[in-house]
Structure formats: structure tokens, C-alpha cells
Amino acid sequence: MTAPETMQLGKAIGAALHDALAEDDRVFLMGEDIGALGGVFRVTDGLQATYGPKRVIDSPLAESAIIGTAIGMAYRGYRPVVEIQFDGFIYPGFDQIVAQVAKLHYRTKGRVRVPMVIRVPYGGDIGSVEHHSESPESYFAHTAGLRVVTAATPQEAYSTLRAAIASDDPVLFFEPKSRYWSKGEVDRSIVRDLDTAEVLVRGRDVTLATYGPVVKTALDAAVAASDEGIEIEVIDLRSISPLDVDTVVASVERTGRLVVAHEAPKESSVSSELVASVVERAFASLQAAPERVTAYDTPYPPSAFEEAYLPSVDRILDAVDRTLGRRSSRTAGDRTPALQGGSR
Amino acid sequence: MSLTVPAPDPALAAGLDEPLTVLHPDGSRHASALLDPQLGDVDEHLLTDLYVDLSILRRIDAEAFALTRQGELLLWPPSQGQEAAQIGSGRALRDTDFVFGSYREHGLAYLRGVDQGEAMRVWKGVQQSGWDPMEHHLATPQIIIGAQSLHATGYAMASTLDGSDDVAVAYFGDGATSEGDVNEAMVFASAFQAPVIFVCQNNQYAISEPVAVQSGFPLALRPTGFGIPALRVDGNDVLAMLAATRIAVERARSGGGPTFIEAMTYRMGPHTSTDDPKRYRDEAEVASWRAKDPIVRLERHLESVGAPIERIREEAKIRCDAVAKELRAAVTAVHVPDERTLFEHVYTTPTKRLERQLAEHDAFVASVEAEDHA
Fold it and tell me: Could you tell me what reaction this enzyme catalyses (chain B) (predicted)?
């Protein structure tokens, strides 16, 4: 048993890959620039030197082929961990992911397993150009057969990625790239599942559910709210598909209020699904209409606008206040306070 | 893995002027410096076996097509006309070579010993794959055009990693050569020198689009741009297909990398049982290909070498009748599984979400039944 180490989130992912490669020679990595360069974010730094170019494979630049050939390798018993360099580059591989990876196990009645992990650095707030800051997780959460998970801390990154690699289901592992350099303790002996949300902070007033890079923002919001005597219960959803609705419902049954936050746009998003599920199952517990704090329904804007576009502590607190009836509706002239158990 | 890519070279393609062939439509055997060395084992016995295989495949196809008209099957993509392309190439493989086909490779399923009743489950609409891919080293039908070419390439890459000499084969049609996946598969196959064989059955049509819509020059030239050698073969000549595939297999097994085979053939039937080819091609064209029929030419060849053709025909007929009878019985016996099974195998272990939906479904069904009994 090794002692906990302090490391950056990106390094924790590298450590998980290192340990998985060491433990199981059926695990291999494939992606663009993951070899000598160590990936554009250096997540795979040193792995090709350690495990060689047959297990850490620099691939030609073709996302569909990265996914598709990894399927073929899975047919032969391998456990592929592939990297899509940036969120916005995943679309050429979309067909192989949703039409093949997701459906092979179902199609073959369990005879073919695709224990593939697709690593996707995602999200914004890194001041980059178009296609480098997107949050495409909902496309995949909408597809049966895929697991879609995120990680918010170095520990979560390490343990959840290990669980993803160990899983016999295909997993999309969305890495919050703006948090790659955040530091935390990592205990390599901690084992995590792929199914459950986690209550990070207990609070009696409002449930705030989020995931990935927004977890840190949510925790900051909870601290700020506590200064005003408001207790926010912060939940890291961890898994986007399947969503752990049970944990959120149990929380809302205590707090009566729900705010969901994420970097992805609002329409047909994780928050759409979560709010709908909570309303279905805990309608009577709701004391206010659920609120959502998301990106706007525009394409990802130029990075100069990121601050306005992405969820922030202030936007979260604003939403929390509305659920508590401490603010009016955002609609100008509409002074109707939130109704008991109702909607606007 | 090696990333050495040979320079593109049009000279990599053989058979561009005239597809490689040894068996002409009149049944006469012709010399081929390239193919003959692969055909040393061809004797009356092998020719008879091939004839029986081709005949059985044609019969399976005819029976299945008829079953769509009788409402026993939903849909069928006919293979008539492509028997030699499938049986000739398939016969060049060993059992542990993994085949990734499209949805028209009924000949490969037959060669790999797939139970016809299992194979027909897809076309009956009760299952999305018929057989166990691992048992037969044969992926189940791939409906996304060209997607399987990547799976074959990855399988071949894995075979190399294992130090095995198993090869992988991707079957696809002329239309698939326009898909990104097929081109990306050739990029990867070439870059990693993967032991994969691309068998393109150029049956002249992608549903209604003639091959000229896909390409103004021979499809066999495409792989050469990726540094992959190509053999353009008379796909209605079972011996030429056998020989060409043996060349490709030998290259792959010995570390020589991928090969592309363009089998020049013709889809005699419609795209599927719901298609109407009269809208896009004329009878004269079909007749010209009927004159190049793969089974007729083999029959003529058997006759020309003095084989007891009447006895061989009779033997083939007995085998075909038996297969047809078995197929009909198997299709009729297929029943629709319990609808609750639609929730199975989405994941390797059921998620809470799906368990919940199954429970909701059960409750709804029970409530309807309770009302019916009230």
C-alpha cells in the first residue's frame, strides 16, 4: 500500500494509465501525439518510454479509425484506452462510437464486449480557439450502451479512470481540462465505482448538482453562501450516464430545492434530464422550481466571452437565491415569487 | 509498431487493363503467371467442392428471398451473382482468420458453418445478429457501410501484437470505397502494415448508383495511393478469386501487410427484397452479366475436364435440397423472444435505470392484463 501523494489532476490520470498498463498487458493506449510528446496536455508523459510504442501507440490523424480499430483490437481481447485530443475533435469518431462501440454488446447478445475507454479532455476556460473548449457529453449520454463519466479532483480522476479501464462496458471519460493543473491528494488504493454520485458538502437549504470542472465552482459557491447563512448541499454527479438520480432525489427530499450546473449548453442537456427525473420522482418535495446554470445555447464563443458564457459562482448564487425566493425571476417585470411545488 | 509507409505507386495494381482471370465464361481454363502458382491443388475433387458450395449459396439466397415473399422474413439482401467472389475468397482462409463482412456475405456464413436458422434471425427481425462471432471467427452483419473495415484492421493490428499469423478480412462493396471509414482503414492498415485483406466486391451498384458515381477510375487504384497493392480480379471466376486471396493471405501471414482485392462481379438481384432494379438498370446489362455467370462457367469447366457432370449436378442438387429444407424449417421455427429480453445486454451488467424501466414496463403490461380480465 503506497502513501497518498499530492499531484495535479492531469498527472493523476497519467498515474492511472501507468498503473493500468503495468497491471494488465491487454491494456494499451492509442491516440494522436500521445507517444514522444506525451499528449498535448502531457497526460501520457513518459508512458511510451516505459511501455513502448506497441502499447502506447501514436496513431494517424483519424478519429473514426482510432475508435474503429480499437474495436477490432477489443474483438481480440485487448482493452483499449484511446485519447481524443480535444472535445471538439470527437465528431469524426461519432459514428463508430454510437453505432458500433455502444451497440456491439447489445447487437451480439453479450458475445462481444467492448471494454474501451475513450478519454476526452473537455470543457472551456482555457482561453483557446474554436473546437477546443466544448462539452459534448450529452450526445453520448443519449446513447444507450455507453457509460459517460467525469472526474473533478485528482483522486476522482485516478480512481474513476481505473474503474473505467476495469469496466467491461465502453466508457467515455470526460476530463475537465481546465482543472488538469489543480492539485490534490491521490491514494492509489481507493477504488471507485462508475455509477454513483457523491454528496461532497452537506447542507439543508438547496441541492446543487454538478460535475466535472464546475464542481470546484460549486464548492466555492457553497462557501460564499454559507457566509450568508445559506447551506448548499453540493453533489458531484460523477456519472452522467447512467445518472444517479437516487442520490439527487434523496437530497432534494431534504432540501426541497434543486440547482443543476454544467458547462454544456442548456437544451437537451444533463440538467434537462436530471431536472425532469427529479420532478418525476420528487415533485411533492420541491418547494421551488428547479434552476439551471449552464452555458448559453450558442456555439462555444470566442474565448474573450468565456467568463460570461460559463457558469460562475455569482450565476450559481443567483440561481440559489431564486430557489429560495430571495430574488425575483430573471424575466423583467415578472415579480412572481417561486411557487410552492409549482413552476413558472 | 512500424510507421513506414511505402510511396504510392500505380504499378501496385494488377489487372487494371483486364481483370485477372483463369476461367473464362465458356468454361475454358487460361494461363495466368500470377494466379496459376496458387492453383496447384486444383483437381476434379476441389472443382466439385467449389461447384457444390456455389450452388448451395445460390440456393440459400433463393430460398431466403422466397421467404420474404411469403412473409417469413422481413428483408433479404441477395447474393446471387456474387457466389464466386465470396466462396473463392472465403475458401482461401483458415478457420482462425477473422472475417468482418457487410450484410451480403451469406457465402462466408455458410463456409464458416453458421446454422442457417441462426443466420436468418436477423432477417426475421428477432435479433440483431445471428451467430456467435467468436465461435465462427466471423463478425455478424454490419449495416453501416464500410464500418467493419476498421474493425478488421484493428483485429489485424492486434494479431500482430499477439505475435500470431492470423489475418483479418474485411468484405465491403463498391459504394463503401467512398466512405471515410474504408479510406481510414487503408491509412491505418498501411501505416501499421496490418495483416488485413480488403475484399471489395464491386457488384457495380450501391443500391441504384452505378459504380461510376463512386469513381471515374478503377477502384483498385485507390489502395495504391495508400501504398497498398491491389489485385483486380474477375469476381465471377471462383479459381481466380481463390488464387488472388491466397496471394493476399500469404502476404499478410508472412508480414507483408495489407492487400486490396477488387472482385469485379455483378449483383444479379435487387439491392434487397424491397428494391426495384428495373428503375435504374436495363435488362440488356443484366443479360450480359448472366452470360458470365460464375456457376455456369464452373459447370462448363467441369464438363471440359471430363468430370462426371451429371453425377456432380445430382450431388449438388441433393445437398441444396437438404440445405433449403433445413433453412425453411429453421425459419418457420424461429419464435419471437419474450419482449422483456429487449432490455438485456445493453450493458454487461444491468443499470438501475434500465431495471427501473423494465419494472415500469412490467407494471404497465400487468395493468393492461388486469383490465382485460376485469
Answer: N(6)-[(R)-lipoyl]-L-lysyl-[protein] + 3-methyl-2-oxobutanoate + H(+) = N(6)-[(R)-S(8)-2-methylpropanoyldihydrolipoyl]-L-lysyl-[protein] + CO2
Residues A216 and A304 in one domain: yes
Among the partner residues B98, B129, B346, nearest to A108 by beta-carbon distance:
B129
CB < 8 Å to B169, chain A: none
Question: For the purposes of burial, counting CB atoms within 10 Å of the CB of B196, is it exposed (0-12), middle (13-18) or buried (19 or more)?
Answer: buried
Are A157 and A212 within one domain? no
Of A199, A320, A200, A317, nearest in space to A249 by CA: A199
pTM of the model: 0.95
Query: Is the residue at A343 inside a domain?
Result: no
> What domain count does chain A have?
2
In a domain? residue A335 = no
Q: Are A9 and A121 in contact (CB under 8 A)?
A: no
C-alpha span between A166 and B105 (Å, rounded):
35
Q: Is residue A339 part of a domain?
A: no
Which residue, of A117, A151, A186, is where some domain finishes?
A: A186
C-alpha B250/C-alpha B243 separation (Å) is 11
In a domain, residue A192? The reply is no
Q: Same structural domain for residues A139 and A277?
A: no
**Residue from A107, A143, A146, A246 to probe the interface with B (highest B Cβ count within 10 Å):** A107
Instruction: Kindly report, residue by residue over B259-318, the tens digit of the pLDDT.
Output: 999 999 999 999 999 999 999 999 999 999 999 999 999 999 999 999 999 999 999 999
Measured in degrees and rounded to the nearest 5, phi and psi for residue A293 equal: -120, 105
Show which residues on chain B lie within 8 Å of chain A, measured between beta carbons. Answer: 1, 3, 98, 100, 127-129, 132-134, 139-140, 144, 147, 149-159, 161-162, 168, 180-181, 184-185, 187-188, 191, 344-349, 351-353
The shortest C-alpha distance from A27 to chain B (Å) reads: 12
Would the pLDDT of A334 be above 90?
no
Q: Which residues pair with A233 in a beta bridge?
A: A207
Average pLDDT value for chain A: 95
Which residues of B are designated catalytic? 267, 271, 280
A116 and A204 belong to one structural domain: no
Domain that holds residue A59: 5-186
ipTM of the complex: 0.95
Chain A residues whose beta carbon lies within 8 Å of the beta carbon of residue B154: 68-75
Residue A276 has a CB neighbour count (10 Å cut-off) of 12
Whether residues A170 and A203 fall in one domain = no
Is A59 in contact with A29 (CB distance < 8 Å)?
no
Distance CA A60, CA A30 (A): 10
